[in-house]
Specification:
The protein is α/β, with parallel strands linked by helices. It is built from nine helices and 16 strands. Helix 1 crosses helix 9 and helix 5 runs antiparallel to helix 6. It is elongated and about 80 Å long. Bound molecules: zinc ion (2 copies). The site of one zinc ion has 4 residues, from loops.
């Protein structure tokens, strides 16, 4: 174990009480996407207390700061945390329970933010021990389209100085605390929302011959669209099409004029994402037309798919093995959820890994986006220490 490695472990241990206090403060004061005003002020104050000069108001509530090591212009690594909470009413009975009714950090972004503040403290302390610069990126609105990441990129977060790589972490309620998960290449899905309106001619259910039944049309369309997945998608190329809303608002003997359908389209390939959308639109419109009606097919675009740069991810994983031991570094499955970290991964080398937060013995098993989500706070010592080590290893490699 290197000297530096040991130093980081000790600092992570020293700072865990503060990281935990910060997490509790953020957890008790959650703010919704694009409204992270108090959170951003809190982050900026903490960074200033470390002697850093944060830039505030990037993409609204984003905060960016630099920690300069030796030869600060030689190399830059970006570390990212998201800051927003969700419109969920917390059901946990804990001392740090959300104080804002109907708003909760149910996706662990309080953990990501407090952990990155802890990382900042460790790296600032050790700035004489690494080459280059660490760019800290605290971003708004991971949970809401168009995503804080895309707006921060537009406002230049990846320029001046430009990070050679971006690294982010996310809590993992399916990974035991003490473990870290990685996956090279495709990891998370693009997300698009689909809105279909199938129009026909409604009327008395006893006289279908005089009507154009949109319920039957819409049913055919749903079945046909699934066959685009099974017949056109390359088998090695994962994608998901799910419809969660199908509203035919008639009654037993009244056929409505129209049916509305809503669904989600998720892929791991930007070309197939576009091609699939074209095929679905053509099929839905064509089928409705063939049955005498019409179909409006609208898409609200979400995030691109998230690809973890293979070599960067291999380096990160090797560094994590040094820090945690091989037994504590696990491989992740594909995850068809979306993440706006994907925007970074489309333009720079990026690595998004998972911080284990599950503890079955203590009943900490709830998924993200549920009112009972929580973490085993042992992860708050691992998160900042590990991310500091990953950043330093990456900066000192050349
Ligand atoms: Zn989330
Ligand atoms: Zn999240």
């Amino acid at each position: 174990m290197s000297d530096l490695h040991q130093k980081i472990k000790l600092l992570a241990k020293d700072y865990v009480a503060d990281v935990t206090a910060n997490r509790h403060h953020l957890h008790m004061n959650p703010e919704l996407s694009f409204n992270e005003h108090k959170t951003a002020r809190f982050v900026a104050e903490q960074l200033r207390a470390l002697g850093l000069e944060p830039q505030e108001g990037v993409a609204g509530t984003g905060v960016v700061a630099l920690i300069e090591g030796r030869n600060p212009t030689s190399r830059v690594v970006g570390l990212r945390a998201d800051m927003d909470a969700l419109p969920i009413h917390e059901a946990n009975d804990v001392p740090y329970k959300s104080q804002v009714p109907g708003v909760m950090h149910a996706c662990g972004h309080d953990v990501h933010t407090s952990s990155l503040l802890g990382t900042a403290r460790i790296l600032q302390q050790l700035r004489g021990e690494f080459e280059g610069t660490v760019k800290l990126v605290f971003q708004p609105a991971e949970e809401k389209a168009p995503g804080g990441a895309s707006l921060m990129i537009k406002e230049g977060v990846l320029d001046n100085p430009k990070p050679a790589s971006m690294v982010g972490q996310h809590v993992a309620p399916n990974v035991p605390v003490g473990k870290i998960g990685f996956r090279e290449g495709m990891y998370m899905a693009s997300t698009d929302e689909l809105y279909l309106t199938v129009k026909g001619k409604g009327g008395h259910g006893a006289m279908p011959d005089q009507l154009i039944d949109p319920v039957l049309m819409a049913s055919h369309i749903i079945v046909a669209l699934q066959q685009i997945i099974s017949r056109h998608r390359k088998p090695a190329n994962p994608s998901v099409l799910s419809f969660g809303r199908f509203i035919a608002d008639g009654v037993t003997n009244v056929i409505p004029n129209e049916v509305t359908i809503q669904g989600t389209w998720r892929c791991m390939d930007e070309e197939w994402r576009e091609e699939g959308l074209r095929k679905m639109k053509k099929m839905a419109e064509g089928m409705a037309d063939a049955m005498g009606g019409s179909c409006e097919f609208e898409v609200v675009r979400g995030y691109p798919f998230l690809k973890n740069h293979p070599e960067l991810t291999r380096r990160m994983k090797a560094a994590a093995v040094e820090y945690m031991g091989a037994d504590n570094v696990v491989d992740l499955d594909l995850w068809m959820a979306g993440e706006d970290f994907a925007f970074y991964s489309q333009v720079v080398d990026a690595c998004f890994y998972r911080l284990g937060t599950r503890n079955e013995a203590r009943g900490i098993v709830s998924g993200v986006h549920t009112p009972t989500f929580d973490i085993d706070e042992e992860a708050l010592e691992i998160g900042p220490g590990l991310m500091s080590w990953l950043a330093i290893r990456e900066l000192n490699q050349r």
